[in-house]
Structure formats: structure tokens, C-alpha cells
Amino acid sequence: MLREFFYLFIWLVNILPIYNIFKIGANVFIFIWPVFCWMTVKALLAEVQNAASIAIQNRHRFMVMLCCSGLEGRIFKLARKVFRSYKEVAGDRKLLVVGRNKFIEMAKEYFDGKFVHYRESPSILGETHSALLLDLTEGFHPNDLGIIVETIAEGGIIIAIGPHPERWNNLVGKWHEELISEPYTVDDITPRFYRRFIRRTLEAEGIIVFNADKRKFIKRYEYSGEEQSREEIQIPSGEKEIKRKLYKLCATQDQVRVLQLFETFFDREKERKAVVITADRGRGKTAVLGIVTPYLISRMHRVLKRPVRIMVVAPTPQAVQTYFRFLKKALVRQGMKNYKVKESNGLITVINSKFARVEYVVPRRAMIEKDYADIIIVDEAAGIDVPVLWQITEGARYIVFSTTIHGYEGAGRGFSIRFLKRLEMDEDVEIEKIHLEEPIRYGKGDPIEAWLYDVLLLDAQPAELDEDDLEAIKRGRLTFEAIDKDEMFNDEKLLREFFGIYVLAHYRNRPSDVVILADMPNHFPFRVAVNGKTVCSIHIAIEGGIGEELMKKMADGYKPRGQIIPDLVLKHYWDYDFPELMGVRIVRIATHPSVMKMGIGSFGLQRLIDWASGNELDWIGSGFGVSPELLRFWLKNDFSPIHITPQRNEVSGEHTVIVLKALKMHIQSVVEKLNSEFVKRLLEWLNDELADLEVETAIHLLHSLQKDAKVPRPDIGEVDRRRLKKYFHGISLYEYVSDVARPLVRYCYSRTDRPELNEEEERVLIAKCLQLKPWWEIESGGEVRPFKLLLKALQKVWRWYDDGDKL
Q1: What CA–CA distance (Å, rounded) separates 432 from 267?
Q2: CA-based max dimension of the chain
Q3: Cα–Cα distance measured from residue 635 to residue 701, given in angstroms and rounded to the nearest whole number
Q4: Numbered ranges of CATH 3.40.50.300 in the chain
Q5: N or C: the chain end with fewer CB closer than 10 Å?
Q6: Domain limits, CATH 3.40.630.30, in the chain
Q7: Residue list, annotated binding site for acetyl-CoA
Q8: Distance between CA atoms of 244 and 358, rounded to whole angstroms?
Q9: What number is the average pLDDT over the span 136-156?
Q10: Are 64 and 96 in contact (CB under 8 A)?
Q11: Is 756 buried (19+), middle (13-18) or exposed (0-12) by CB count in 10 A?
């Protein structure tokens, strides 16, 4: 056809004046262009139907990205044609629409369905939808993308409306404003994350990309995978503890296997029993917990002859809504129909009946109330700090853990590496493990899951280390280097090794962490490498350098974005000079799980300190959920604690500690002053909000004192001395001298020249005199009774106080 048109054009050139040629050409273009657009759109709709057929056959999903220069009615008309074309193959489908206000209002003119604003994305966590219209016109928050896309079931279509590919290279989303550290602005942001996102999207299978303005394909549908089939569900026959009706609620054979494992849950050889269920996101592990719970209730109710108390612990109540939905179905099938549901802010938190009380509890509360539970179920265990997990489950007879390995809610194997290994060392616990492979909402090999995991780096893995690498580490052949961010986000191997360490080593990861490091101008990556492989990942932020105007706003209560340590020092210590100083906040430092405790983290930290000093920075610090293990690491590297949050985080159940180290001589006195004031406050907080702080953590914090704190020396008169003498000679009890002992101990720990106590004595001294714990809560760690250890410890403190007077 093009050849004939060319011959016609040459003929016209020979017989017509030149101006007539252009006139005729324009008229021909006006006539042909709509026909061409119609043919291209028709080709798009045919492509959609072909993709739908393949996706439905393989139980997969696919995406159509419509690129446009702005939100206009014609883009929604095209999206509607795409959706209608899809439904001709897939049948009637309900549409989920997610976007911002303008997008939603325009979409309502063309579509019916469920409309959700981006800020409400967490509310659809765990829901299932068959089609999605997604607003990408102003970018997206990566945490939201994971939640939204994973609600779409097999055979589903995702219609995304967004900018042209070249616009992603300079696109700064509105949510970037929430992350940018002051005094920087969005003009300082480089959208490396979006650049990689569109590049990887154009390379991914299962996605059609179409230029809606020029009506042409940018990328056609591709799928090279083999036809997938789900493993046939086979419910076990014969006599079973768990009813067949419950088995029929299972959507995969993996879930059936979980129920089979629970058939022997109460047949334990050891005193305590734990089941650990692991899976990637969307494998049905939370649902199967709800399915099996009525069986657990039934068995325990027969023995206890009272309502069974089940505590369900998770980082957020949203995380367990799927559990409660399946629990309600399973209760009916178990014959426990009469139950009452309690909700909070539209979320189920309690299901109560004459058989059981099943209640969601935040980690902080679970630490306190764990002893009241007959069974503890911990969902999304990877999202809870390891020391908190240990406190929640220590001593429990029946525990069930469910955790995500890769996912958008907070993933990681810190649970497996740090918590589970410790639990396995307990000889009184029998542990059974099971891993779920089969996805629930869609089939194996789904290209959209692969795309989502890729663009959000959910499946990043650290480098595989061999014997040569281990030998090089032992010999100290390590290198430390700053990483160029442009190079990093164009080098998939380097990028995945770096973030793979975080996935394995940290208990809480978010896709937004990737964006903060990639895009924010004051965030930088460093690494320790061996033989070119990353073995320690370090993420820092430059803070400080705050001007007078912003400082005044901070003093009046304003919280600047990103300036965490300067803001804390100003508001808690009223130091107006510190925010002007420039420093490094270590956002994250993590070592490859295979080579922990080999000095790699300390090596990286010392080299980072050298780098910061060489760049004339004033201080280096960090904030972290405190545990004895982490605190030892920072103290070993000469960092000083300057703050602890008196309240535990409601989600993770942890206290956050801020540590600081001076990089210049004249800053050292500033750090010492902050540390001294901190210890003074800590001595008071330990008998109030920090009464439940781990004693080992309290000891480390108190031992960090560098300069005597301003705690008054107690004036102990003659009568009080005689009272102490009776106690020391065994004639009186501690309870009769506690009013004298407590200020004495507080004064002791406010001094750098305090007496030497052994570990057992110090644990009891702090627990009883500073944290005011009852005797039954105090562990001595040895054969000597706690009250005898306390007597010895107080005798040493008194001799130190009274210059050798032994009474």
C-alpha cells in the first residue's frame, strides 16, 4: 500500500504545482490519520485479547500501560475500550480503581467499580480483585504499588495510566516531598528509582506499553514461560483430627499440608511446641492460620473445660484481617457458629464465644499479657524486632509463627537467622517447619509478580560466598568504598547484592527504603567488599547545617523532615549550636548473614568514620531499635548513647536509642555532656517507663557514662546508717532499707569511678533498686538467690560510698 501511495505522490509532483501538492497532502493526511489511529487501537485491543487468553490459560495476570501527556477524557475512553475488550475474553470482571483525587473523579465518569485513594491503600491489604485501573500519572509510592498490585487475582488485567517513558527519567512525585530532608527541596531530587522502574518495565514480560497520544506500540505483549498448572488438591482420607470441612477451605495443596502438620500439633515429645510457616507474599499462610484455629480451639477446650485464650500478634491489625475472615468461615464449619465480633476503626480485633477468645494484640501489649494466652499466634513475625519476639514467646507452651520471606510489608530473614536459631537451641521446644510455594491468587510463574518483585527489589539476594571469599575475610583482605548512585542503579548485580543483605539481615524493610537511598540528595551508599562481592552494606544520611530561621521553627515544635539527630538534640537538650554542625547519620549498616561476627561491620564503621573525618564533618551517629547485641556493637566502636525513647514502639515493641561519636576534638565535650545528661535521665526513667527494659540493655546504657552526671550525693544520716548496718548483718530485710538503697544506687551509677560488681550482682542491683522489679521477676543467672546477691552488691556500693567503712 505504501508503494502505491509513493507512485501516486511522484505522479502528482509531475503534473501539479508545488503548493497544490502540499494542499492535497494535508487533505489526505486529515482523511487517513483517523483511519490509521483506528487501526492501531484495533491492534491494541487485539493484543489485549491475546494477552488475556494466555494469562487466563496460565492463571496469570498481565498489564497494559497507557502512556499519555496528561489526564484527558480520551485517555479514559481508551482505557474503557481496553477493559471492554478484555472482558470479551475474561467475562464480567469487577474493577478496582486506585489513584489521586482528580484521577478518581474523572474515572467515575467512565467506569463502575470500587474507587480507592492512594492514601487508603493499606485498607485493601488482603483483598482480592479481578481488574485494576491504576493512576501512575504523578508517579507512585513504592509501598502502595506492592499492596495494590498484589490484590489482583489470576487472569486479571492491570490498566496503568502514566507518563511517557522519557518523562519518568525526570519525574518527581508528590510523595517525594514527604521524604526530602530540609533544607533540601524537590529540585534537588534525582529520580533514579523511577528511571530504573521504567527501564525494567520495558524489559519485563507480561506487559503492553502503548503511546496513547501517538497511537503506537512502545512494547508489545511477551510471554516465554511454559504453561503452568496448579498442583491438584488432595484431601487426606481416613481418620483425621481436623474435619474435612476445614480442609475444603484450602485453596492450595500447600495449605492442605499445613493442616496435615497440625494434625499432630498436640502430640509433642517436649514441653513446648512451635510451628513455623514461611512463604513469599500471597501464598495463603495467614489464611491457613484462620482455617486451623477452630481445630486448635476444639482440642484445647476439651482439656481445659473453659474458653481457650488465643493471642494473635502482628505488626499491624491490617495484617491479620485475612486471618479473621477465614477464622469466621472455619468457626462455622467447626460447629462454633455463635460468636461475637469486635471491631476497631473498621478492623476486626476480637472474636469471642463460649469456646474461645481470639484477640489481636500489638507487640508491645503482647509482651505484658503473654502469660494469659493458651496459644500465641505470631503473624508477619519478620516485621517484629527479635528481642521483642523473644519476650513475647519465651516460656509459651504452644506457639505458631507465620512470616514473609520476600514481601512489601516488611520482610527479611532476621527472624530465621537470629530468632529461630536461638529458639532451636532451647531443648524444651519441639519445632516443626513448613514452607509454602504455591501462590493463592494466581499461578506459579506469574510475570506480574516477577515484574513487581524486580522493580521493588523484593527478591534481592546477597552475593554467594565461596571458600576463597571466606579465606580472604579471615586474612583481612577487605575493601571499603563509596558507591556512585548512578552506577549502582545501572548495575543490577551491585544493586541486588547491596539490598539483598538488607533483606536477609533486617527485620523490617520497605520498598521506600530503596527510593530514599536512590533519590534523596543527602543519602549515600557505601560497602565493604571481598573479591568484588558486597559483604557489608552501609546507608548514610548527611544531617545538620541548619540555619537560624529553621532552628527557630524547630524550637517552637516544628519537626523538620530528615533532620533526626539535630532535631532530637535541640528539642531534648536545648542545644542551639548542635544543629549548625554537619554530621553523618548511619541509616543502616548490615553484614552478610553468612559472615557475621567476623569484624566486618566494625571494619566498615571505622572506615566510614575515617571518610567522615576526611570530609570535615563534625559528628557521626545512628538510631536503632535497641537490643543488647546491637548496643554492644556500637559501644565497642566508641559510640555514646544520648537518648532512648521512654515508650516502646507500638508496632515493633522496641525502644529506639540514639548514639553519637565526635569527629573533632572540640565536639567531644559536647558528646560527653549529652551522654552525662542522658544517663542522669535514664536513672529516673528506669523505675517508670523503662521498668520493663531488658536488664542487660540497661547495664550497657549505664556503663556508657563518660563524665559524671549531676546527681546529688545522698546525705545518709546516723539513723539510716544503723538501719543499713542491720540489713548488712542479716538482721533486717531489703524492704526496710529500700528508701536509703535506691538513692545510693542512683548516685553510684552517676559516677564514672563506681565500684566493680560481677555480672550477677549488677543484674539484681539494677533490676531491684533502679527498675523496682518484684523478686519473682528477677533472674539471678546462677545458684545464689537474688536477695543474697543484692545484699553483696549493696555492701560493695556502700563501701565505695563510705570510703571503706565496713560497718
Answers
A1: 12
A2: 128
A3: 9
A4: 244-436
A5: N
A6: 460-682
A7: 589-591, 629
A8: 23
A9: 94
A10: no
A11: exposed
Using CB atoms within 10 A of its CB, is residue 653 exposed (0-12), middle (13-18) or buried (19+)?
Answer: buried
Beta bridge pairs of residue 643: 658
Q: How far apart are CA 775 and CA 754, in angstroms?
A: 25
CA atoms 453, 69, 44, 106: torsion sign:
positive
Q: Record the cell numbers describing residue 526, joined without a space.
A: 557505601
Q: Give the pLDDT of residue 29.
A: 44
Cis before 743? omega within 30? no
With a cut of 80, say whether residue 646 has pLDDT above it: yes
Half-sphere exposure for 156 (CA within 13 Å, toward CB): 25
The rounded distance, in Å, linking the Cα atoms of 28 and 631 is: 77
CA angle 565, 567, 572 (to 5 degrees): 95
H/E/C letters for each residue in 582-608? EEEEEEEEEECHHHCCCCHHHHHHHHH
Pairing of strands 216-219, 207-211: antiparallel
Residue ranges of the alpha helices (H) in 93-186? 101-107, 142-149, 165-168, 176-179
C-alpha–C-alpha distance, residues 73 and 574, integer Å: 55
> What are the strands, taking DSSP E only, across 316-371?
340-344, 347-352, 356-361
Residues near 481 by Cβ (< 8 Å), separated by ≥ 6? 526, 527, 529
Cβ burial 715-728 (10 Å sphere, 16+ → b, else e): ebeeebeebbeebb
Per the listing, cell 481496553 goes with 82
Annotated binding site for ATP: 255, 441
Domain 22-219: state its class: alpha beta
Binding-site residues: 255, 441, 589-591, 629
Residue 179: what pLDDT? 86
Please write the tens of the pLDDT for every residue from 388-401: 888 888 888 999 99
- How many angstroms separate the CA atoms of 215 and 114, rounded? 29
Residues of the chain with CATH 3.40.50.11040: 22-219
Which three cell numbers, joined as nine digits, stand for 560?
523538620
Please say whether the beta carbons of 709 and 752 come within 8 A: no
CA-based radius of gyration for the chain: 32
Class at the top of the CATH hierarchy for domain 460-682? alpha beta
CATH assignment of 244-436?
Answer: 3.40.50.300
DSSP 309-321: EEEEE-SSGGGGH
Closest CA to 662 of 654, 671, 653: 671
Supply the DSSP symbol for 415.
I
Give the pLDDT band of residue 26 (cuts 50, 70, 90): very low
Cβ contact 631:697 at 8 Å = yes
